[in-house]
Specification:
Elements (H helix, E strand, L loop, with lengths): L1 H15 L3 H4 L5 H8 L3 H4 L1 H15 L1 H4 L5 H19 L5 H29 L4 H30 L2 H6 L2 H14 L13 E3 L4 H13 L1 H16 L4 H26 L6 H20 L5 H25 L4 H33 L3 H18 L7 H5 L5 E3 L11
Antiparallel strand pairs: 1-2
Helix pairs in contact: 1-8, 1-9, 1-11, 5-8, 5-17, 7-8, 7-11, 9-14, 12-16, 12-17, 13-14, 13-17, 14-16, 15-16, 15-18, 16-17, 17-18
């Protein structure tokens, strides 16, 4: 039992560190903008840059893995997160804050890119459980940061402390990585051709689909707390909304894939998840103060289900594990870039309109469009879609760490 739970603790510790850099910002945005003078469009870079890093690193992982080993990548990623958060304790300018987001984002991106392979190798007989716990810890870390950061800022009378305190979990995860990870041979990079999907139409459709149906998450962590601050809520109360959203994300990420596993057609569950998001955004538009917890619960459940199901949908397209992993890397890479751009657009809409109504309308319209796109993903179309030109190879090798089980 010890041989299983010690590595599982390492996985959970790593997951807990991958979202606080995003979710700690929103509840403290009023204080951050007051101290740095950043506008809503500029401050959106604190969310955009890390998410874009996640996309770029995943997209080019086949080439990056040739230069950086998995072990060095995890250590470097945790150090980047710890240094970036520690830097935030001292900074006093908007430029420095944005630079710290880029540094932390690179660290998160590297760890996130290699985690599926680590899980598959460490827990070959328990992949679904381990992957579920990793996903839950990732979301839980984001929720904890949103809830606890404003309390830390109040306790230390410093918004910088609310952001910088998240260096501690990164340091603890680094210690666990050295002390508790299982002994194993250093994984060697795969040789041979790199399979990629840059010319495949279905791969691009899946990538845009992944990015757009998950784009509500980055917009929520960036703007939901500040939107309720404008409605008169405190930093602590508005940050608590991200905590509520996280609870329902975790519940959906763990439960919906299990419910959907009995059938290959993912469309009914995806449409249900998208309808939950749509209902939540409609509530934010029409009655934000009447039933806020209900709207946030619907959005959170829809987002959590969409993340898990959209990855499952991607993997369903190919049977061979390595090819499916390559497709997942492409979809996540491109999708995260799209997901990172969305809060920049919604922040721009807030700047030009003075409120978040237009931002919520944009997100609702995107979800509605994705409901229509979902109809295209019939299981009978998978084989022909993957025979399109674009499943190509070039010199080099993709490390097996990019493959999802």
């Amino acid at each position: 039992m010890k041989a299983v739970w010690l590595p599982m603790m390492v996985v959970i510790a790593l997951g807990l560190n991958l979202r606080p850099i995003l979710t700690a910002i929103g509840p403290l945005l009023t204080e951050i903008r007051g101290a740095t003078g950043l506008g809503f469009q500029a401050v959106s870079w604190l969310t955009v840059l890390p998410v874009v890093c996640m996309g770029v690193i995943a997209l080019f992982l086949p080439w990056i893995s040739r230069c950086v080993s998995e072990r060095h990548g995890v250590v470097g990623g945790l150090l980047a997160i710890a240094v970036a958060c520690g830097w935030r304790l001292l900074l006093d300018s908007g430029v420095s804050l944005i630079a710290s987001a880029a540094l932390a984002g690179m660290g998160v991106a590297i760890i996130q890119a290699v985690m599926p392979g680590i899980i598959k190798r460490w827990f070959p007989q328990r992949v679904p459980v381990a992957l579920g716990l990793y996903s839950a810890s990732l979301m839980a870390g984001g929720g904890a940061a949103a809830v606890l950061s404003p309390h830390a800022a109040v306790y230390f009378d410093s918004w910088q402390a609310g952001l910088g305190v998240w260096a501690l979990p990164a340091i603890l995860a680094l210690l666990l990585w050295f002390l508790a990870r299982p002994a194993e041979a250093v994984p060697l990079p795969e040789r041979g051709p790199i399979q990629h999907f840059f010319a495949n139409r279905r791969a691009w459709l899946l990538a845009f689909y992944f990015g757009l149906i998950n784009g509500g998450y980055t917009s929520m962590v960036a703007w939901l707390p500040v939107s309720y601050r404008q409605l008169g809520w405190s930093a602590e109360a508005s940050g608590g909304l991200i905590g509520v959203m996280t609870i329902f994300q975790v519940a959906a990420a763990l439960s919906v894939p299990i419910f959907a596993r009995g059938r290959l057609d993912r469309r009914p569950w995806l449409m249900l998840a998208l309808l939950a998001q749509l209902a939540g955004f409609a509530g934010l538009l029409s009655a934000p103060l009447s039933f806020p917890l209900l709207w946030i619960a619907l959005i959170g459940y829809g987002l959590g289900a969409c993340f898990a199901l959209s990855l499952t949908l991607t993997l369903d397209h190919l049977h061979e594990p390595r090819a499916a992993g390559n497709l997942a890397a492409f979809v996540q890479g491109t999708g995260f870039i799209i997901t990172g751009i969305i809060p920049y657009i919604t922040g721009w809409l807030r700047d030009i309109t003075g409120n978040f109504q237009a931002s919520w309308i944009l997100l609702a319209a995107t979800v509605t469009l994705m409901l229509l796109v979902t109809l295209r993903f019939s299981p009978g179309s998978y084989a022909s879609a993957m025979k399109q030109p674009g499943f190509q190879a070039s010199g080099g090798g993709l490390n097996s760490s990019s493959s999802l089980p």
